[in-house]
Amino acid sequence: MKVHISISLYQIIDVDEPAQxxxxxxxMIQKWKDEYLNWDPKEYGMINSTIIPYKYLWIPDTYLYNxxxxxxxxxERYMNIQVESSYWKGQAGSQLSFLYPAIYTITCRxxxxxxxxxxxxxxxxxxxxxxxxxxxxxxxxxxxxxxxFIPNEEWDVKSFKIFRHEYKYACCSEPWAILQxxxxxxxxxxxxxxxxxxxxxxxxxxxxxxxxxxxSTDDDRTEKINLGKWGVxxxxxxxxxxxEN
Length: 245
What we know:
Residues 1-189 form the Neurotransmitter-gated ion-channel ligand-binding domain. Keywords: Glycoprotein, Ion channel, Ion transport, Ligand-gated ion channel, Membrane, Signal, Transmembrane, Transmembrane helix, Transport. GO terms for molecular function: extracellular ligand-gated monoatomic ion channel activity; transmembrane signaling receptor activity. By secondary structure, this protein is of the alpha+beta class. It folds into two domains: 2-187, Neurotransmitter-gated ion-channel ligand-binding domain (Acetylcholine Binding Protein, Chain: A); 192-229. Helix content is 17%, strand content 39%. It contains two helices and ten strands, in the order ββββββββββαα. The strands form two sheets. It has a six-stranded mixed sheet with strand order 3-5-6-2-1-8, with no helix packed on it. A four-stranded antiparallel sheet has the order 4-7-10-9, with no helix packed on it. Helix 1 (190-210) runs antiparallel to helix 2 (218-238).
């Protein structure tokens, strides 16, 4: 069975550098054809499409592999499924469209070596949890829909593309269809330039100048050294995480 997935990004809720994860508000759409779900519209008042609660239908076991939260109740809100009969197309079965909102927190290796000019690449890995490609074959749009995206004050979205791969795991003889949605974001440095880099640079220059003052001006020198200490404290407070190689 082929399952087509579309993703719309609404919001970047949080980028947590110390915890190495990112929180996204998205809208998921899964579409597939169920050959065993049939009815003749002529026998049901010419009704060709309907909406059915998801719990009464079979749905693909699609999972976000690198989600921080394992419970679906905490990340996805399942509701109803739109079902359209293929009777008038001369085909058996029905086309199903499953739309639902989700708030995903995914693991992401965040490197802030070039903070506040850093660019991050985070990937959502999506596939079936129990079915190989012979049972569920996943496809997706080439790019995530950003039409309804709410701009983030700290991050710019540079690209959000989806790639399809086939992986063969040691546990199974058949390959699995894996979708990887690659989100590339870049930090907006203006806030940190105004509130961190410029003030810290000024304090540092004043502190360095203090070391060249005459030995008799101990009070002025101590004051400038204290300013340097405050500058280091400000840097530690604003920088989200010290880079470790």
